[in-house]
Known about the structure:
The protein is of the alpha+beta class.
Amino acid sequence: MKYFSLPLGIAILTCLLFLSTLSCQKGLKAPNGLSFSYIRDYKNWPLISLNYRRDLEELHMILGNRTALENYIHGTPQNGKSFTDGTVLVRLIFAARPNPSFPQSLEPVGLQRLDYMLKDVERFKETEGWGYANFIYDAKNQSFKPYGKDASFAQECCNCHRLAKSRDYVFTSYTPKATK
């Protein structure tokens, strides 16, 4: 267990270093109008979970606003209930590599994207009640650019999230000790 907690700690610290560079992007908007400014205080949001996507070899750090955290604490989505309007989940996506000191462990090596999803049933009827914003990170310029040519990019997100329909279209499970 000691070996797991050290790499996890390193991953969290590395991820947090990138958070300070992200706040400069507040005027940026996704093609569907969702803006970076909507998540302007995400750096203060609790950690919901960390996960690794094997097919893309990515580490994901998922943060949630207070509404998201309250929903998770009360058992959503495992209890069959939907997230309430106003729920926001932010996903920081990093490339991963084996840790040189402990190759059985993975560590983040570079921020690739920041995505977020916002629950608003009335506003986002066409995408199952969720709005999506995806921003690609340019490490050279330390800036983001929106993903997608027009607002239809959100259908691409929604199509994937339909795999988690029974969980209100959210893949992420809550890791309770992550916030303590």
